[in-house]
Amino acid sequence: MPTYTPPIRDMQFVMHEVLKVADDLKQIPKHADIDADTINAVLEEGGKFAAEVAFPLNISGDTEGCTIDQTTHKVTTPKGFKEAYRQYIDGGWAALACDPEYGGQGLPYVVNGMFYEMLNSANQAWTMYPGLTHGAYAALETHGTPEQKATYLPKMTSGEWTGTMCLTEPHCGTDLGLMRTKAEPQADGTYKITGNKIFISAGEHDMTDNIIHLVLARLPDAPPGIKGISLFIVPKFHVNADGSLGERNGIYCGGLEHKMGIHGNATCQMVLENAVGTIVGQANKGMQGMFVMMNAARLGVGNQSLGLTEVAFQSALAYAKDRIQMRSLSGTKAKDKPADPIIVHPDVRKMLMTARAYADGGRALQVYCSMLLEKEHNHPDEKVRKDAGEMLALLTPIAKAFLTDNGHIATNACMQVFGGHGFIKEWGMEQFVRDNRINMIYEGTNTIQSLDLLGRKVLGNNGATLKKFGKLIGKLVEEEGVNEKMSEFITPVAILGDQMTKFTTEVGFKGFQNPDEVGAAAVDYLRVAGHLVFGYFFARMAQVALREIAAGSTDPFYTAKLQTARFYFAKLFPETATLMRTARTGSKVLMDTDAALA
Amino acid sequence: MPTYTPPIRDMQFVMHEVLKVADDLKQIPKHADIDADTINAVLEEGGKFAAEVAFPLNISGDTEGCTIDQTTHKVTTPKGFKEAYRQYIDGGWAALACDPEYGGQGLPYVVNGMFYEMLNSANQAWTMYPGLTHGAYAALETHGTPEQKATYLPKMTSGEWTGTMCLTEPHCGTDLGLMRTKAEPQADGTYKITGNKIFISAGEHDMTDNIIHLVLARLPDAPPGIKGISLFIVPKFHVNADGSLGERNGIYCGGLEHKMGIHGNATCQMVLENAVGTIVGQANKGMQGMFVMMNAARLGVGNQSLGLTEVAFQSALAYAKDRIQMRSLSGTKAKDKPADPIIVHPDVRKMLMTARAYADGGRALQVYCSMLLEKEHNHPDEKVRKDAGEMLALLTPIAKAFLTDNGHIATNACMQVFGGHGFIKEWGMEQFVRDNRINMIYEGTNTIQSLDLLGRKVLGNNGATLKKFGKLIGKLVEEEGVNEKMSEFITPVAILGDQMTKFTTEVGFKGFQNPDEVGAAAVDYLRVAGHLVFGYFFARMAQVALREIAAGSTDPFYTAKLQTARFYFAKLFPETATLMRTARTGSKVLMDTDAALA
């Protein structure tokens, strides 16, 4: 069975010792009173919910899955899911980072982010029911009318209602411009919406009285492509003026998908038949609201893989200490046992440390992104808001793709630690691999993320935002350039920073002549950028650890951080050399393959 | 739905044009009459069986799985599996490479190998029922008494009975020295065997009247560890002197495992209660017979991943041509359609070509290994037999680990081509990923393979066999060193060959001082060695293609081979740079992690 203890100390380290979030929050009026103790107390409690309520339902939820009654279109979630959700809203967890205007607790995004990391470790499939609500909430908060906000946000804040994103159709996922769902304007200002959506996570379930669907559709006179898409609120049940539930709306679940993983989450085919909705934002500008949801979802997906990486690591570590098999190559370690615990073997340590390093790096990036989101939305200084928004835009595809690819590597490595037992469902390790696999696909495949990063976020502004990230590295080099002990952590990052500058210029130049060069380099480019970002955070984590040790700390926690950083730079970071090399071989070798792909 | 057409032309290319197997077979008396046409004809027919009989049962077999009646211990395989097996033995397929002495067709191993590639593409779970028999057959053929052979081999040849390998126990997989199953000698020369085995593939099923278990167990006076292990034949039903079936033996299936993949194969917990068996080979020398089975099984596992790589490639290619989504970055390609087929996107091509290249390289290695096996067993010249055996010993861990890791990369890439649909069971792509995942684990995890390669096969003889492989590269350089057109294919292999020599010396030197250095470098080392081997074969495939084109051929098949080789050297081979770099960072950074792994 997997093991999970919320990594509170690791979270505190990143938040308070490395990134000093409380200092930044003091600059933001609505959070000026938040201190580290408050954050820690909330996360302690949140960790208990994750470990004690959500985690025990993970394997059973996977085994049982969701079921649909094809006559009533009702979906039943696995045993215990509904009750856990009731505890979740009773505990006020749904409201954590929501606006107090709608009944929220108004805590910073970073608290919600770390809480969700723990929920994702505990049970990704369950967590998607409340998780999807946040994207819908954000889109409504940004683009909804006052009336829409008043009608829906309080119940979404309390968690009494959940939300969905209805984007994909059978013939279009990435390419939403091909969308066919139609919205017919009615005399009363509402719209009648008809069409078929697929892959709608948490599209139907038995946890709440109502579900608020945010649906993309096309008006009759809409221009073709994504410039003709509008966003609508389509509630499962209409809401009366007094807030009570009215008639059932014409949106229902036509079937559930059979999937590789996240079995506990209902992935629905949604049928809309003259479903009545109201428009969110302007006609034909639905992509704006969609991107609010999508950017939130992308950070959320990265966080899902962070959670899975952490729980896979903890479970494999426990097994590696317990399972005895063979003797250490360098001589017997456990003389009292017939064999040594497998943690004595170098490659077992390599697999474990791979997961540990990707969890630590991923957590730093997630906290950093949460704070950028906070500044973008709530900082009093417009320039800070703008800069934070740009940096977040740069880092979002990295947080999505790099963390989910790392989750793939890490969960597979941790499963491998279990040998044959890793393949057996009861041990729970193969579920982490299966659940993680969707994270590399949904909310924009990782290829799409890489094109977003290189094409739009980097080359789109001539590398200006990337250069700003480079300045953070420059600042660290300035601070620590003469500190010999920091050299092993700073030097590789500084070198890669320089290489990235050249690499970016090269790709930009080639892409200018042939756009396929961008498509050919993008996936490799994103992974290099991911390591640049991780390398920077590992250097900063090492900086804090070295300072604490220099100041006399004997807490092995700091030694652990140094060991992890050293492992990262020795064993994971060097793939950047190959990635830049393969990217430089360009697009010709990919595109001149018509005979091989005949 | 997945698509599969047996890649007969690709097989013929490797067998007849690149490796010229018929020429080698002429040197071997028992195959002197075999020509290319015979091989091709058998494979054509075999391909029909794979594509038309086994393939249609792949998804249904996964969905249905195997079931056990806990009262009778009877196991039922998925619908259609039994009937397909009947067709298989009626067609004489079980007997393909078996000795005519026992009713076999006596065809070369390479024919059976290519036939099994197709079966593995079609249905890995089904293929394991006949597949496991080959290992048991080989162990009996090598170490059995004439009586044992006469009793069991004819029925195993015809496929009327299947075989198993019963090695693993709950507390020991890798470390067979910890084995507890006991064998008590009886007055009549037989043994009564008692113990529990787990993870026994095809351990019980409804396809045949009898199952011949090859069981590792320990005699009462056996020395501890693997030097005290003996091998026994334990039939499910005893066999009377006249060949008819006698009483039920005390070996039965206690339960089936719930697994990530290969659901159609019964992975059994086997209980032995005073099961009567006869010893195979000498007492306490059971590991010899075990290794005969194991080496066959390791090549077989590599072949499983080759099969999955090929079918995943074909399926993803068909989808990429059919699915339209977005426009090409370099301008509209399909003007008559609302979007371009996704094969226009460079990264989609990269994912497809990754699978294609790993299939082509893997097939070359499999054919090469089959021919070495042939020479080792059947060549009239003792020196040839010995050399072939040594080279095969070197290449076996590469064929197992490199091909299965590549299968992981390739099946995941092909699943990714499908976007969200890749995650949905009905499309069949995620099954290839799940089925492949066990290949990296069973018959010795890929870490164990890497230790076998580096520790035993390379450093164990001071790199002598590796140097022989280097000579093959040297010969190619000599032949083609002045051919400018070959330079792009030969130069990287020649350079890597030189680097490997230094790299091996370094690791050997460090390992001499500290054995953990071998454990730390082994996995990276195996992957570099895999690319050296693949690089050599890709250069030889390019050589043939260039010659054909120079001779006037306009067959696009040869262009395809050049494109694939170019892709391989540009995008896949360069990871060797990182692998050697990370291996060189050594064991300290792995072993000094006690705080991080506390």
Describe the 3D structure.
Two copies of one chain form a homodimer. Chain A is globular. Chain A is built from 18 helices and eleven strands. With 598 residues, the first copy, chain A, is an alpha+beta fold. In chain A, the strands form three sheets. In chain A, strands 3, 4, 5, 6, 7, 10 and 11 form a seven-stranded mixed beta sheet that branches. In chain A, strands 1-2 form a two-stranded antiparallel sheet. The two termini of chain A are 47 Å apart. Among the domains of chain A are: 136 residues, Butyryl-Coa Dehydrogenase, subunit A, domain 1, CATH 1.10.540; 129 residues, Beta Barrel (Butyryl-CoA Dehydrogenase, subunit A, domain 2), CATH 2.40.110; 140 residues. Chains A, B: Keywords: FAD, Flavoprotein, Oxidoreductase. Chains A, B: This is Acyl-CoA dehydrogenase C-terminal domain-containing protein.
User: Quick one: biggest sheet of chain A?
Assistant: 7 strands, mixed
The low-confidence parts of chain A are: none
Helix content of chain A: 55-70%
Oligomer: homodimer
CA-atom Rg of chain A in angstroms: 24 Å
